[in-house]
Amino acid sequence: MVNNAGVLGFAIAVPGADLSADGDKTIAASITTTDAAGNSGSASDSEGYTVDTAAPSVVVDIVDTSLNSGPRRQPDRPEGLHRHFHGERRFHRHRQCQRRRRQLHQCRR
């Protein structure tokens, strides 16, 4: 017995595979109860149901609005290397060398 907001009822767990395999897709339930004085009562009901076996579909709409607007954030670059944006999707790199602690660090392409 289940008390659902002051209403007594019952619940039975049924595996989804059993519901899917049921040919008529109908759940039929009946109950009979008897109280201490010997009075009995019964009720029955049935409900139809559907099982959705279609795989969900996904639609991906790729819209790249950043192709002509340049990079939003400079990615991490090795020291001495930087990139400039010049117009529509054209980049070029500049070499830049720095001296530190008496060592010449070569710039990378």
TrEMBL record:
Gene3D superfamilies: Immunoglobulins
Amino acid composition bias (Basic residues), ranges on this chain: 83-109
Residue ranges with Basic and acidic residues bias: 73-82
Organism superkingdom: Bacteria
Region Disordered, residue ranges: 66-109
InterPro entries: Ig-like_fold
Protein name (record): Uncharacterized protein
Naturally occurring in which organism (per UniProt): Candidatus Accumulibacter proximus
